[in-house]
Each structure stands twice: as C-alpha cells, then as structure tokens.
Amino acid sequence: MRLDGGVEEKPPAVTGISELVLEVADLEASRAFYRDLLGLEETLYGEGREGRCWYLVGESARLGIWTEQVGLAGGRGGVHVHFAFHVEDAELELIQARVEARAGQVEGPIQLGPGRAIYVTDPDGNVVEFWSQDMAEYCNGARENGQPGTFR
Q1: E-strand spans in 58-114?
Q2: How many Å apart are CA 109 and CA 37, to the nearest integer?
Q3: From CA 106, how far away is CA 80, in angstroms rounded?
Q4: Residue 77 phi, psi dihedral angles, 5° rounding
Q5: Which among 5, 35, 60, 80 has the fewest CB atoms less than 10 Å away?
Q6: What's the number of CA atoms in the CB half-sphere (13 Å) around residue 43?
Q7: Burial (CB count <10 Å: 0-12, 13-18, 19+), residue 131
C-alpha cells in the first residue's frame, strides 16, 4: 500500500479479533442467552465493573455484553448485521441440539461457501452465527488475489 508521499506502508500486523462488545438492554436476559443457552464460559478475570459480563471465545478472544454505558475512547457502538464464531463442522449439530433443547430457535444449517453455518438471535436482536469456514484458508486465498463470488 502506498501513501500520498510515495512511502510504502504495510498493513497493520493484526492477528485476530481480541474482543467484541455488544450493548444489551437486559444484562440478566443476555447472560441467560450467552452463558446458559449457548454455554459460553463466563469470566470476570481482569474486569469487575457493574453492568458488564465477559465470555471467553476460543483461546485468544472475549465477548463482552454491557448495559448502556460509554466505553473506552468514548465508544457507544452501533447497529451491526451479525457476528460469527468459528467452530468445527461437527460442532454445528451439537450447538443446534443444545439450543433447541432449551427452547431456543436456530436457523440452518446452511451451506455458506466451503463451510456450513447456523444462526441464533439473542434477546437484543443480535444475530450470532456459528460457522465452520476455515478463515485461515480464506485469508490465504484473499491474499493470493482471490476473486469475488466465493459465497454465491
């Protein structure tokens, strides 16, 4: 990538997403969804503020659910379409069975590119996707000048 001064600049060396924070209307309803329905591991490690809960995601990320408040750098967030957790393909049926056994609604599974996905909606209308797409493979293909149209 070139800047205006003709200086070559590399993209930032980002290795993954560290955390995602969602604003929720009812913290206890959201805890019941993420902790009890989906089974995510709740933690307060390094964080004990009122109106916030954290969930461990894989080995290197966390999901936060916060009641309405101003976050770091004055952040308030905004509306988004959805977010996705990576899971192995065989896990999709297990997650679907868990959610449905607790009277939750699941959309899918659907074929999405080389992976499959299921979707669950949280109490605030956030769509949570569980997707088996290998993102390392996807990123490698994109960096090798992959063409659009992968998911048609």
Answers
A1: 61-66, 83-86, 107-112
A2: 18
A3: 19
A4: 75, -165
A5: 5
A6: 10
A7: buried
Domain 81-144 classification at class level: alpha beta
Q: Which of 52, 51, 53, 28 is closest to 40 using CA atoms?
A: 53
Segment (H or E) for 31:
helix 27-31
Rounded-to-integer distance, Cα 8 and Cα 87, Å: 37
- pTM, to two decimals: 0.77
Instruction: Walk along the chain (152 residues) and give the pLDDT tens digit of each residue.
Output: 555 666 777 776 767 788 898 989 999 999 999 999 999 999 876 666 788 899 999 888 999 998 887 666 666 666 666 889 999 999 999 999 999 999 899 999 999 888 999 999 999 888 999 999 888 887 777 777 666 655 54
CATH architecture, domain defined by 17-67: 2-Layer Sandwich (3.30)
The one-character DSSP state at 12 is P
Residue 81 DSSP one-character state: S
The residue extents of the domains of the chain are 17-67, 81-144
